[in-house]
Amino acid sequence: MIKVTRWIAGAALLCLLAGGAAFAAPKTFVANDYGAKGDGTILETVSIQKAIDAAAAVGGTITMKAGTYLTGSLFLKSGVTLDVPEGVTLIGSEKVEDYPMLPTRIAGIEMTWPAALINVRDQHDVRITGKGTIDGDGPIWWKSYWDLRAAYEPKGLRWASDYDARRPRLILIQNSSDIQLGGGIVLKRSGFWTVQILYSHDVDVDGVTIRNNEGGKGPSTDGIDIDSSRKILVEHADIDVNDDALCLKAGRDSDGLRVNRPTEDVVVRDSIIRRGAAAITFGSETSGGFRNIEAYNITALSGVPSGILFKSAHTRGGYGRDIRIHDLTLEGVAIPIHITMNWNPSFSYATLPAGAKDIPSYWVTLTTPVPEQQGLPHFSGVHIWNIKATGAQSAFNVAAYPNATLDDFRLDHLDIEAATAGTIANAKNWTITDSSIKTADGSKPVFTDSSFKDAKDVPFGEPK
Asked: Second label for 332, Cα 20 to 30 Å away, from 48, 50, 371, 405?
C-alpha cells in the first residue's frame, strides 16, 4: 500500500521551535476578514488570496463564512489547508483574464495555459478539504470549445481543438508533494480537466464527488488525471463526467517522449463511475510509460462505454507493465475489456493543413514526426481478475499491432454477460483461466494474430 505523508501543521512546528506547546492548533484565517463578501457577484480573488498568504506565513488554515465566492485563480502555498465548509461555494470567473497564463502540460504536451481555479504549484504539505463546493461554472467554457471544434473539424483540425480552446482546469497539483484532497468536497462543472496531478508525488485524493454534466455536456471534463506522477493514492471517488473518469497519463508523442516521465506506484480503489469514458483508463497519453499500477473495487454504471480501457496511438510510444486490475463491477458497460492502440485518429494524429502559416508553436510540437519504432506503444505484464460484467454489448475489443503486440496478459475469474463475445488481436502469451463468457448470440471470442502460453489457456476456441 502506498503510504502518503500526512498533514503536519506548520503552526505546531513553529510553536515547538519557539518553546511553546508542541501540539498547538494551527491558526485559522477567515477570508471574510480580508474583504471577501460571499455574495456571488463581486470578484473575490484578491481577498481570498490575501487570506491564503497570511495562512502560509504560519502554516494555518484558510476558510470562509457561508456564501458564494466568485473568484479567479487562487494559489495555495506550502503548509496551508484550504477548508471549503458546507454552505460555501467557490465559483470560477467566466473571464479568461482572471486565470494567468503559466507553463504546464495540457493533454500530453508542455505549453502555456490558463492557470486552474485552485493551484498547488511547486509546493508541499497542502490540504484541500471540506464539504463545500468548488464550481468551475463550466457552460461558458464548454460552449467556447464546441464552437471552435465546429469551425475546426471541416478544416481537418479536430486535433487542435483541445489545445486552442483555452479552458481552465478546476484543480491543478503540479511539481508538488505531500498533498491531500478530499474530505467530502464537491467538484463540479469544470471548464476542462477537473483534477490534474502533474509531475508530483505523495498525493492522496480521498473522498471527492465530481459532477461535470450539470447544465450541459462538459467536453474533455476528465475526473482525476494522474499525469507523469508517482506515489499516488485515489480512493472513495464518486464521478460523473463526460470523458476519462479515473485516468493515468504520461505525455503525448514527441514532447512526451522528450519529457520521458512515467506514472508509477499508483493505487486507485473503492470508487464509482456514474458517467465517463471507462471505469479505469490508461492513456491515450502513454509516452512516458506506466509501471506498478493497481486499480480495484471500482463500479461503473450503465452508459459508461468501457470497463478497462487502454488507449494509445502509433505515434505515442511508451509502455505499460506490472499493471493489476481487479474486483470491478460493470453494470451495463458496453465493452468490459477494451484495448486499442489506434485511438481516435482524428485527435491522435496531428497534421498541418496545406499552406498553413503563422501557426502556434505548440502546433509545431504536436505535428513533429515520431520514428515508427519509437512511436509504437508496448504493454506487457498485465493481470486482470475478478471482473463481473452484466448487460455488455461486446465482451472484448482488443487490438494493437503485429509488430507491437500485447504481451503476457493474465486474465482470470472473468464473469461477463454480453450480446456478443468480440475480438482479441495482436495478443502474445496470454492466459485466460477460470472464466465465464456468456453471450446472447452464442459466439466465442475471435482471436487473430494471437498466442497463448499453453493450450489450456485457450478456453473459448483456437486463435487464428
From this structure: 405
Dump pLDDT digits (tens) for 33-79: 999 999 999 999 999 999 999 999 999 999 999 999 999 999 999 99
The domain that holds 214 is classified in CATH as 2.160.20.10
HSE, side-chain direction, 13 A CA sphere, residue 80: 27
Q: What is the CA radius of gyration of the chain?
A: 23
Q: Which residue has the cell 485515489?
A: 234
Instruction: Show the CA angle centred on residue 8, arms to residues 91 and 99, nearest 5°.
Output: 25
Separation between Cα atoms, residue 50 and residue 35, nearest integer Å: 9
Please tell me the predicted confidence (pLDDT) of residue 459.
66
Q: Work out how many domains the chain is built from and give that number.
A: 1
* Residues in a beta bridge with 295: 268, 325
Amino acid identity of residue 181, one-letter, is L
Task: List pLDDT tens digits, range 240-295.
Answer: 999 999 999 999 999 999 999 999 999 999 999 999 999 999 999 999 999 999 99
**CA–CA dist 216, 61 (Å, integer):** 34
Nine cell digits for residue 371: 520514428
Phi-psi label, residue 253: left if phi above 0, alpha if psi -120 to 50, beta otherwise: left
3 state SS of 425 = strand
pTM: 0.94
Helix 45-58 crosses helix 10-17 at what angle (to 10 degrees)? 40
Would the CA dihedral through 266, 314, 223, 240 be positive or negative?
A: negative
| 12 has a pLDDT exceeding 60 | no
* Pairs from 93-102 (Cβ < 8 Å, separation ≥ 24): 93/43, 93/45, 93/137, 94/137, 94/140, 96/166, 96/168, 98/43, 98/45, 98/71, 98/72, 98/73, 99/72, 99/73, 99/168, 100/73
User: All 3 cell numbers of residue 200?
Assistant: 508530483
For residue 251, is it within any domain?
Answer: yes
Q: What's the CA gap between 9 and 91, in Å, rounded?
A: 27
DSSP H or E run through 399:
strand 378-399
Instruction: Note whether residue 410 is domain-resident.
Output: yes
Cell of 454: 499453453
pLDDT at 309: 98
Cell of 46: 484578491
Spatial CA neighbour of 362 closest among 105, 100, 97, 99: 105
Q: Which domain holds residue 239?
A: 92-457
Higher pLDDT, 82 or 15: 82
Residue 275 resides in a domain: yes
d(CA 257, CA 376): 11
The reply to whether 279 falls in a domain is yes
